[in-house]
Automatic annotation (TrEMBL):
Cellular location(s): Cytoplasm
Subunit structure: Heterodimer of HisH and HisF.
EC code(s) of this entry: 4.3.2.10, 3.5.1.2
Name by which UniProt lists this protein: Imidazole glycerol phosphate synthase subunit HisH
Organism from which the protein derives: Sutterella seckii
Gene name of the encoded protein: hisH
């Protein structure tokens, strides 16, 4: 199996690559269009602000390449947000537009932002949720670090709550994303990555 982690220049590339390697697959970290299009699975990682991430994608000529992909793609943390049509972060920025939702700051009341730490995730009964969360109980714990998220919307396949309900995972067509960091979520995160890759764990 050929697995590509898109070289978006973000800080969680190596930790994600190590997590995939522990599943017995050596991923390629690349932005070469031929290698990306030939992959069986593609990861879209991201950390930082939406505006900076989109600027980096544009600099690396990645937006149109990502939109053209037909194989399964999984966005991680900010990578999930990048799939949306727009984020209100840093004054507002247009995103990839692959999931018809907008990203906004979490409304958490007196709770601290960023939302940093472990939180329970509740998938729905959609086919993609059953695939990604196979073998994981509803309410499993995953690790989050974020201040912005998609509100619950028509593409939400899993929810979490921090001050308010928000999208913990979303999917449309061959594109899916998780707001949490599976590569930092222990056995549950490893199982989710294995499910996405279609390997036994």
């Amino acid at each position: 199996m050929r697995v590509v982690i898109l070289d978006t220049g973000c800080a969680n590339l190596l930790s994600l690559a190590r997590a995939v390697s522990r599943l017995g697959i050596d991923p390629e970290v690349t932005r070469d269009p031929k290698l990306v299009k030939a992959a069986d699975r593609v990861f879209l990682p991201g950390v930082g602000t939406a505006r900076a991430a989109m600027a980096e994608l544009e600099k690396r000529e990645l937006p149109d390449l990502i939109r053209s992909l037909t194989q399964p793609v999984l966005g991680i943390c900010l990578g999930e947000q990048l799939l949306a049509k727009r984020s209100e972060e840093t004054g507002g920025v247009d995103m990839l537009g692959l999931i018809p939702a907008e990203v906004r700051e979490l409304r958490v009341g007196s709770l601290p932002l960023p939302h940093m730490g472990w939180n329970r995730v509740f998938p729905d009964d959609s086919p993609m949720a059953k695939h990604l969360f196979k073998g994981l109980p509803a309410g499993e714990w995953f690790y989050f670090v974020h201040s912005y998220a998609m509100p619950v919307n028509e593409c939400t396949i899993a929810r979490a709550e921090y001050g308010e309900p928000f999208t913990a995972a979303a999917a449309r067509d061959n594109f899916a994303g998780v707001q949490f960091h599976p590569e930092r979520s222990g056995k549950a995160g490893a199982r989710l990555l294995a499910n996405f890759l279609g390997v036994e764990r």
